[in-house]
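Design request, tokens follow.
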């Protein structure tokens, strides 16, 4: 992993669709952006913070998520997910994360990722 410092930020903007809704995740009658979709958007924003820090053959994997889902947004809403590096502990990186729909804070918390050698990581998977 190359040099990385706290304070690095990234944003991931998503125009959501029905596939991001709670209905699509198995909650009939709830056409709002689902918790798992928002978490995925936050993970993407965190991953983007690391884009310039990877050595060839490296990537990152999520290791911990601690978020609160504070408000709802309808499927079709444009969501802005943001992440900021707060702690670097070797190959483990912690982020402050938030998801917003306009001025509405939808989700907030922390996320951790580990930088891994992708070939070694994939070799550990059962065949």
């Amino acid at each position: 992993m190359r040099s990385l410092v706290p304070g690095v930020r990234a944003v991931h903007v998503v125009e959501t669709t029905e596939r991001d809704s709670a209905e699509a995740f198995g909650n009939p009658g709830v056409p709002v952006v689902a918790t798992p979709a928002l978490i995925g958007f936050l993970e993407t924003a965190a991953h983007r913070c690391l884009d310039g820090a990877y050595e060839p053959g490296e990537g990152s994997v999520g290791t911990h998520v601690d978020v609160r889902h504070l408000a709802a947004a309808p499927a079709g809403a444009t969501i802005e997910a943001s992440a900021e590096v707060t702690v670097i502990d070797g190959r483990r990186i912690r982020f402050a994360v938030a998801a917003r729909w306009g001025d509405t804070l939808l989700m907030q918390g922390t996320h951790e990722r580990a930088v891994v050698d992708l070939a070694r990581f994939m070799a550990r998977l059962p065949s």
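Comment from the thread starter after seeing the answer: thanks! Helices lie at 35-49, 118-123.
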